[in-house]
Amino acid sequence: MNGSWRGLDRAHLVLLRELADRGSVSAVARATDRTPSAVSQQLKVIQRQVGAELVQRSGRGVRLTDAGRALADGAVSVLTAWAEAEAAWLAYRTEASGRVRIAFFHSASELLLPGLLDRLRAFPQIALEFGDEDVGQTEFAPLTRDYDIVVAHRSDQRRTARGGLRVVQLLREPMDVAVPLDHRMAGRRSVAPADVIDEDWIAPPEGFPIDRVLTAIAGQTGATPRVLLRTTHLPLMERLVAGGHGIALLPRYTTRDRSAGRFALVPLRDERAARYLGALARPDRAARQAVRVVLEELTAVAEAVADPAEEG
Question: Is 245 in contact with 228 (CB distance < 8 Å)?
Fold first, then answer.
């Protein structure tokens, strides 16, 4: 069967990219606002055009063949170059405009979103569409299928693979031990893991960056932390600490303004206690003019929030 990939248009490449990322015709149909039968028909058109089998039946669905995977991987480079060229032309002709879909987890939106909105007043043609996505650190990358930018976090102890994505590092936020004001450690300049491991803990769900720091403390001391409650809601954690119900690891920049008069934040020594915040994006979406602007302004906000003496 003869054919050529040169006859493929942008829509064909997008379809292959989505199938590679989402793994099923029905998921691609939902993402591209088509019916499954329309997606299947387009896949047949693409196969006839290139003269090769790109998908095979697999159970009740389909999967990409080696040829299909190769073409889908190549589509990423083509779509990225296309977006970069389009962005360069638009920058020459017009100001940045368009919709940008951005996902934050809760404490990141509290830390960064107000400043981002302030800075984007200079770009009235950019419309932000927000999503709240508080997930474990290995679950952020798949969200880039549905968002242009995903603000994610990871702990010092773990670096998560971001295959095929652009990653913009935003900031390193130290984790402090939050204790009640009348606690024996409230006035200390710092504490060691051995000083705190036997306390009652308020912690996030397992797999979240803050919990990974607590797990590292446990590994260093050889003791199992006594966790009374797990929650992703930082204000609840703060309130429970202030009420004397336990101690917690809390992100410094996010929490410090609310700690005064309520609870003490004590730095943790002898342990890599921090979380890293970053922005994830598909490279072709990151190349869009409006997305570029949002990423640049988000980076500027993060730089203003962080203390340079604490970075690294």
Answer: yes
Name which of 245, 18, 280 is nearest 169 in CA terms: 280
The DSSP annotation for 196-212 comes to HTTSEEEE--TTSHHHH
Sign of the four-CA dihedral 168, 169, 171, 177: positive
- Residue 251 shares a structural domain with residue 161: no
Enclosing domain of residue 300: 99-171+275-310
Helix (H) or strand (E) holding 151: strand 149-155
Residue pLDDT, tens place only, 30-54: 888 888 888 888 888 887 877 778 8
User: Are 25 and 139 within one domain?
Assistant: no
- If one counts the domains in the chain, the total is 3
- Report the CATH number that the domain containing residue 68 is assigned in CATH: 1.10.10.10
Q: Which residues pair with 133 in a beta bridge?
A: none
Q: Is 106 helix (H, G, I), strand (E, B) or coil?
A: helix
Phi-psi category of 311—alpha, beta or left, where left has phi over 0 and alpha has psi -120 to 50? beta
Last residue of a domain, one of 42, 62, 91: 91
Residues 6 or more apart whose Cβ sits within 8 Å of residue 111: 173, 251, 253, 254, 277, 305
Nearest to 185 by CA among 241, 227, 236: 241
Task: Give the global pTM.
Answer: 0.72
- Which residues, 6+ apart, have CB-to-CB distance to 240 below 8 Å? 202, 229, 246, 248
> Residue 24 CB: number of other CB atoms within 10 A?
16
Q: pLDDT tens digits, residue range 264-277?
A: 999 998 767 888 99
- Give the span between the Cα atoms of 215 and 207, in whole angstroms: 10
